[in-house]
Amino acid sequence: MDYAKIKQMNIKERVKNYILKEGLINKGDRVILGVSGGVDSVCLLYLLASLKEDLGFGLTIAHLDHALRKESGDDAKFVKKLALKLKLPFICKRIKIKRSAKRLSVEEAARNMRLEFLSKSADEVRAGKIALAHNFDDQAETVLMRIIRGTGLCGLSAMLPKRRIGQAFIIRPLLMVRRSEIESFLKREKISFCLDKTNSSEVYFRNKIRHSLLPLLEKGYNKNIKEVLVNLAQCAGIDYDYLQKAAANYAKASRGSLNLNMLQRLHPSMVRLRLRKEISLLQGDTRRISFKHIQELEDLISSRPQGSVVDLPKGLSALKRKKTLSFYLR
Q1: Which of 49-58, 93-102, 311-320 has the lowest mean pLDDT?
Q2: Is the distance from CB of 163 to CB of 147 less than 8 angstroms?
Q3: Does 228 reside within a domain?
Q4: 251 near 262, Cβ under 8 Å?
């Protein structure tokens, strides 16, 4: 569809078209929506609530109180009032992230707990879709963050419109809507939301990207830098999806074990995909697997003697046997 025509649509039409185009929600689906009370999630709540009859899906609100701020309890009460106002089912839980963080950063621990909460909530109400309110600007920020930290094609794909997590799918209906459009919609409709003061604190890496680096790049280098980054994510996502499907054509490995002879015959790109896939099956994701870890595994496959071991994050190790590369929890 022509971008000029897209811009002429109102935000509700655009989100509806995006949902249909990407196959995010089907008739008869049950959807869990994560609502923090902030600007993005409140916007998505009102949009999905207005679309649920038209598209024929059920909607449940889920709120996780991280107990990281004094006013977090007020946010939970605010979201509960929204649920009552919109006559939607409401699930809420309070946890203490700092006590659960252990060796993880507070940000990473909060993200993990939030996904776990949403996944369990989806199971409880038999919802096949978990809706999150990430937007166009979030996508640009994520790509830039990953470039700075170091990433490959998978990381450049950033946030996908739809991806599986356990028995459900995470969907992101606002991924092509700008933050300024979201704010304008709420202002125009006179919809209130909660303000999270930590969003302006540059203690957090994302906020440094949002408030300092991106404005600098827009002003001094490319005023369309966000579009460039989002386009990069879309291109990388398409290419990575193709590579994943190509890798799936090779013989499937048994859980925790890969055939060494097969790995030694594959193109390096396919080898890396198979390694990441196997690690993901065992520990749920590959978020903490760095390029250095992959290089070590490649060296283990090609050069190191039988019996050699490579230790990976989250207590996972890889052992080179006579005919296989075996993964196990230490």
Answers
A1: 93-102
A2: no
A3: no
A4: yes
Q: Tell me, yes or no, whether 65 lies in a domain.
A: yes
How distant is the alpha carbon of residue 111 from its chain centre?
Answer: 9
Residue 136: pLDDT above 90?
yes
Instruction: For residue 288, give both structure tokens.
Output: 């903490």
Q: How far apart are CA 105 and CA 291, in angstroms?
A: 20
The pTM of this model reads 0.84
Do 48 and 127 belong together in one domain?
yes
Strand order across the 257-259 sheet: 257-259, 324-329, 316-320, 309-311
CATH of the domain at 299: 3.30.465.60
Say yes or no: 15 and 146 in one domain. yes
CA–CA separation, 228 and 230 (whole Å): 6
Number of domains present in the structure of the chain: 2
Round to whole Å and give the CA distance between 310 and 299: 10
* Residue range(s) defining the domain that contains residue 89: 3-200
Residue 213 per-residue DSSP state: I
CA–CA distances in Å: residue 55 to residues 42, 59, 109, 161, 329? 19, 11, 35, 18, 44
Q: pLDDT band at 4, cuts 50/70/90?
A: very low
Q: Using pLDDT thresholds of 50, 70 and 90, give the confidence band for residue 244.
A: confident
Cβ partners under 8 Å of residue 137, min gap 6? 178, 179, 210, 226
> What CATH number does residue 144 fall under?
3.40.50.620
